[in-house]
């Protein structure tokens, strides 16, 4: 019986190692190729770092202006989206939890709705709205797309904040603050925000990752963001596009890894700080 | 009068919460207005514009022009392309992803290999769009690394033009479908209790019995649910195909793009909205199926 078991175990191990090894090769191959592509001149096969150097070169006669514009717009929109999404959602979620529990289902439904509506569909409905925004209210600047990006990140921001608020005793914290004479502003800014800091940070990171990777809205509404400018640059300079793609991927990976660490740390710290409270009870 | 000062504070302390409780609901409701107003403008209104706009001309008159255009033979062909590429890449992604997830599930849950590879999968699942298209062009495109290495070593290579066909788009989609499957299916596999396998063995069942009569039926709803998620994922994808193919429209999102960006024919608005409505219907059906399967799958996750 033991022999059979051991054989089954080692069989499972071989299977596991083979599958994971094959999968790793498959998933790494395009990334390695992308790196190779960024340094190898297509016609001659000459290897140089020109595409990478061009990114930091102070002057390249406007070759990369579009890319700089796209990157700038995307960074500005990332900040705008973070501020708007959290600024709208956090007070609402706090109010709903404390005062209006009946609204919690509808708020959740609205926040998760964008997961089921493809971006291509949403942008068709956004086109007439942006026509009004660019002609009557603001202008055709790319950065106003951030308003629509808030909708795209709503599900992710909701989920992080929901997890954060779930893990604290919102009612006791706010009642304590209120009974010490603190205003609602104090409750939000001095009590809730510091307690859900890790949830806010993770909401920020996922928002930045989504905004930097967004292509559909910008392309369909003919605006310039990082991805649409990459798309354009690729037509004239594939090597630079490859180099920037790798940089982007590296940055997104860093954000996601940092996110994972922060969530992990937050959970551990919460477990530590909550323990004495339960003992005192 | 000397009592008054002590009474007044108590009174006011009692009254304040009572008053705020009376005024409270309305004040609190007022506090949620920014959220509801914002989502009304940027989420609900666009969705309504799509649904209503599909039946309206630019002048606001009821018309079926958009719908008729969307039901033309050419457009139906594009919808079929989209459905086929989603169905096939979801199937391949689901099978390959389930296999990888199973391999991961056999590892102890804290093991370094499992943690690293799962993290790698969640990064790769995010890696879509334009940049993924570039990566595949750099791999099996005309100047791609694999193309070059294959011609140097075995003297032939995959046809680089393949990348700008529906088949090529499918090949690239599989790259983000597999990791998504690994992420969504791994929890279901982790939910299989070793006791179930032991119980099967104790009752005289073989490994085959276990997989066909116990684990299979338990995993089936999760598997099908994940399949639907993958289907919706590639059905809504746009950027990858847009970066691979520039000359023709082969999937619905690309047709929406050409209708939306067509500035010569303003009547194309209703067509774009009808196409979007078609996508909403497909995705709604898929998500309904996903919800039903999710309820079934959760029976075994207690």
UniProtKB/TrEMBL annotation, chain A:
Membrane topology: Multi-pass membrane protein
InterPro entries associated with the record: MetI-like (IPR000515), MetI-like_sf (IPR035906)
Family matches, as SUPFAM superfamilies: MetI-like
Cellular localization per UniProt: Cell inner membrane; Cell membrane
Keywords assigned by UniProt, alphabetized: Cell inner membrane, Cell membrane, Membrane, Transmembrane, Transmembrane helix, Transport
Short name of one Pfam family: BPD_transp_1
Bilayer-crossing regions: 15-35, 71-94, 106-131, 143-161, 199-220, 240-263
Domain of life per record: Bacteria
Cellular component GO terms held in the UniProt record: plasma membrane
GO biological process: transmembrane transport
UniProt domain ABC transmembrane type-1: residue ranges: 71-259
Cited PANTHER family: INNER MEMBRANE ABC TRANSPORTER PERMEASE PROTEIN YDCV
Family: Belongs to the binding-protein-dependent transport system permease family.
UniProt-recorded name of the protein: ABC transporter permease subunit
Native source organism of the sequence: Propioniciclava tarda
């Amino acid at each position: 019986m033991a022999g059979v078991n051991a054989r089954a175990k080692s069989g499972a191990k071989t299977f596991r190692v083979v599958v994971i090894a094959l999968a790793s090769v498959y998933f790494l191959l395009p990334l390695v190729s992308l790196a190779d592509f960024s340094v190898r001149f297509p016609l001659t096969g000459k290897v140089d770092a020109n595409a990478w150097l061009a990114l930091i070169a102070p002057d390249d006669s406007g070759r990369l202006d579009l890319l700089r514009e796209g990157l700038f717009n995307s960074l500005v929109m990332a900040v705008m989206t973070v501020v708007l999404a959290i600024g709208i959602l956090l007070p609402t979620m706090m109010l709903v939890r404390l005062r209006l529990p009946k609204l919690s289902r509808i708020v959740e439904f609205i926040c998760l709705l964008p997961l089921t509506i493809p971006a291509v569909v949403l942008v068709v409905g956004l086109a007439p709205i942006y026509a009004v925004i660019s002609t009557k209210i603001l202008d055709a600047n790319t950065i106003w797309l951030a308003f629509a990006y808030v909708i795209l990140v709503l599900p992710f921001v909701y989920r992080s904040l929901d997890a954060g608020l779930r893990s604290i005793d919102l009612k006791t914290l706010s009642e304590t603050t209120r009974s010490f004479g603190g205003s609602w502003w104090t409750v939000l800014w001095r009590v809730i925000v510091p307690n859900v800091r890790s949830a806010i940070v993770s909401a920020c990171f996922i928002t930045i990752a989504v905004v930097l990777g967004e292509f559909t809205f910008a392309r369909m509404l003919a605006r310039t963001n990082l991805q649409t400018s990459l798309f354009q640059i690729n037509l004239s300079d594939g090597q630079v596009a490859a180099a920037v793609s790798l940089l982007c991927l590296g940055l997104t990976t860093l954000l996601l890894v940092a996110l994972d660490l922060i969530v992990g740390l937050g959970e551990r710290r919460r477990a530590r700080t909550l323990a004495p409270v339960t003992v005192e009870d | 009068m000397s009592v008054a000062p002590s009474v007044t504070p108590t009174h006011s302390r009692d009254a304040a919460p009572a008053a705020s409780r009376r005024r409270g609901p309305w004040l609190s409701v007022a506090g949620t207005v920014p959220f509801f107003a914002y989502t009304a403008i940027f989420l609900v209104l666009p969705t309504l514009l799509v649904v209503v706009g599909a039946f309206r001309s630019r002048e606001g008159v009821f018309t079926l022009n958009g719908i008729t255009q969307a039901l033309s033979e050419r457009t139906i062909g594009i919808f079929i392309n989209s459905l086929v590429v989603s169905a096939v890449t979801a199937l391949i992604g689901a099978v390959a992803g389930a296999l990888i997830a199973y391999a991961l599930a056999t590892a102890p849950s804290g093991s370094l290999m499992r943690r690293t590879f799962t993290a790698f999968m969640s990064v790769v699942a995010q890696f879509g769009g334009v940049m993924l298209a570039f990566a595949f062009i750099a791999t099996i495109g005309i100047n791609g690394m694999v193309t070059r290495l294959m011609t140097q070593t075995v003297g032939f290579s995959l046809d680089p033009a393949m990348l700008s066909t529906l088949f090529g788009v499918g090949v690239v989609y599989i790259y983000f479908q597999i990791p998504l499957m690994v992420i969504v299916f791994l929890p279901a596999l982790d939910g299989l209790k070793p006791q179930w396998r032991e119980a099967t063995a104790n009752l005289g069942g073989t490994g085959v019995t276990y997989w066909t009569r116990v684990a299979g039926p338990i995993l089936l709803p999760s598997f099908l649910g994940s399949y639907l998620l993958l289907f919706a994922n590639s059905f809504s994808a746009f950027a990858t195909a847009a970066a691979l193919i520039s000359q023709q429209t082969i999937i619905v999102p690309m047709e929406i793009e050409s209708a939306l960006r067509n500035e010569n024919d303003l009547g194309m608005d209703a067509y774009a909205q009808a196409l979007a409505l078609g996508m909403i219907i497909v995705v709604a059906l898929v998500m309904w199926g996903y919800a039903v399967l999710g309820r079934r799958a959760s029976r075994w996750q207690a």
